[in-house]
Amino acid sequence: LRPERNQIEHIARQAASGQRRRRNVVRAGIGDDCAVLRAPAGHDLLVTTDFTLEGVHFRREWYPATVVGHRCLTRGLSDIAAMGGDPLAAFLSLALPPGLEQAWVDGFFRGLLRLARRFDVPLAGGDLAQSELRQAPGSPGRVLADIVVVGAVPSGQAVLRSGARPGDTIYVTGALGGAAAAVAELLRGGRDRKAAGSYQPIPRLEIGRALRRRRLASAMIDLSDGLSIDLDRVCESSGVGAEVDAAAIPCARLRGRMVELEMALHGGEDYELLFTAPASSRVPARIAGVPIRAIGRITGGRKLFLVRKGRKSLLRPQGWEYFR
Ligand SMILES: [Mg+2]
Fold this sequence. Notes:
By secondary structure, the chain is an alpha+beta fold. It has 9 helices and 16 strands.
């Protein structure tokens, strides 16, 4: 690994290249005690922070470093999308084990900054540390990353989890279960490990923004932990229940095969959006080229049900604990 000072200069150089918005938003970035951001007039600020921990969220031997970097930033951007907001700047705190190769760090930043450029989000600061004082014999040590994303939304217009009302229709973007199916493939140790490890979800920023602008969504969340658990979070915040139609759930495809319903229901890390809208509102079938599917409706009470072949059963919120 490069010495810290060197490393930071190296990262700052990479981060500065190809950022269009830098001067409008970031008055001072990497290299001072704080970043100085210009807060857009008439907007509320959004702040989100998310861990990416080796052994919990990824394994270094399974995922290329670029994919780990990409997914690290996706977690933050997806939260901003779920509020209907615009990302302004990202901050990264990164703890690296002493024995790590510089090539891994370079790959991580390549993946992260490629996604940052795609959405024009400057990396405006962070912190670097060693995750262990010395390398334990026989242990590769662990990479720990915490991404912070600051965003903005017109004042009072952030789409919260608490706005769902009985009778609202429940929608999801894209397809679900692909990330969980890829992890299952990795755990099985099948031949397609390389393809499974390269899965890079795209945060649905355009869709979140479009729904907020057109005032279509009454409540919204991003699907980071799984449909059942994230829908339950919306229901809990809104004080409502839900009925989900199993046949309407858009299951992802992995190498041409549809993933199992269980993966679409409980698998995490899809980073699609789930939102609710009054039954009377006209929700388009696609936004920004991504299909939008109605999968059920909000009910009174506080329970979640799954309707499958005409039979109704309780839907228990469960996350997918990948590496257990
Ligand atoms: Mg979220």
